[in-house]
Amino acid sequence: MHLDPFELHRPTTVGETVRLAGSLAGRFDFLAGGTDLLPNYKMHLNLKPHLIALEDVAELRGHTLERVGAMARLADLERDEEFARAWPALHDAVQEVATPLVRASGTVGGNLLLETRCFFFNQSYFWRASLGFCLKADGDRCHVVPQKEVCYATFSGDLAPALMVLDAEVEVAGPDGRRRLPLGALYDAQGDGIRRLTLSPGELVVAVHLPRAARGRKGRYKKLRVRPTFDFPELGVAVAGRWDGARVEELRIAVGGADPRPRRFDELTQACVGGALGDARARELGAAIAATVRPVHNTFLPADYRRRMIAVYVRRAIAEARVGSAA
Ligand SMILES: Cc1cc2nc3c(=O)[nH]c(=O)nc-3n(C[C@H](O)[C@H](O)[C@H](O)COP(=O)(O)OP(=O)(O)OC[C@H]3O[C@@H](n4cnc5c(N)ncnc54)[C@H](O)[C@@H]3O)c2cc1C
Ligand code: SF4
Fold this sequence. Notes:
Elements: E1 7-9, H1 14-23, E2 28-31, H2 37-42, E3 50-53, E4 67-69, H3 74-79, H4 81-86, H5 88-96, H6 100-105, H7 108-112, H8 125-131, H9 159-164, E5 169-174, E6 177-182, E7 204-209, E8 218-224, E9 235-244, E10 247-256, E11 263-264, H10 266-270, H11 279-291, H12 303-323
Parallel strand pairs: 1-3, 2-3
Antiparallel strand pairs: 4-7, 5-6, 5-7, 8-9, 9-10, 10-11
This protein binds flavin-adenine dinucleotide and iron/sulfur cluster.
């Protein structure tokens, strides 16, 4: 596999990046660490003739406890002990992404905007050509649910669920200026594995903001995958909450790796606030969440197994979060 030629642009400010994106009108991709985009380019998946590298845009780099730049490297978050203590569920998720080598290049922005995955899509050009292309690249049908014109590719980023349970907000910049939105609103509730984001053309992610009010929540992120040292999530469950003895004061649960977008389940968790949440009640809550999620068989593990594991991971994550430490 090889990379086809492309023109590389290296802006140094957010304003310059936005102007450049406007002038290239859809014929470009942003390039962060490249750990997802470049393998996809090698497989000839939706190539663009221009890449806008974000590496030199100083404003996107670095992190504090409450602001994480889009170009912050996962390895830098992983090494920061104060950050790990402040945001335990998020730190769990960061450590679970890929391998140390990938985390040294991979960024937070790239992780949130990861291309959705499907085993009929993440294949070489020749593999896809021999089967027949699909809706998500070069073709006009879906191999997973052929009777529908919808893409069921799965959102397989680890960080989004862990950030959603912390009420994180994302700051984006584009031709109409800057805006901040709850992280969950970055993912299109009406969309599918292709039209999965709510970003307008030319908008980029600048940073993620973590609210001070979420400090002190206890949390865990549990990940189901085939090879524990390497693989994308087949399921990711994030929990964050506060307890007063056995009584739940606050609870958030988000699930990734099961749908085309990560989702939070506020109606179901809100019903638990004020009461005790032992193993049996946590299992019921997990089953209620699982009943609203519809994974399809487009990753390695069977869809029904992934769905049933939601209840198991919700129960385990709640039990571990509750006894875990909080900053
Ligand atoms: C072997 C392997 C295993 C992996 N395992 C996992 C895993 O277990 N869990 C997981 O979550 N990921 C995994 N990944 C995917 C990836 O490495 C990480 O998600 C990483 O954080 C992506 O960041 P990046 O900077 O490399 O993104 P890039 O590849 O540079 O970009 C990804 C996408 O985001 C867009 N983008 C990037 N930054 C911005 C921005 N600021 N604004 C707008 N658009 C932007 C790009 O245009 C591109 O579409 C794996 C990758 C490999 C190669
Ligand atoms: S779910 Fe269907 S359309 Fe989407 S990537 Fe897989 S095969 Fe292609």
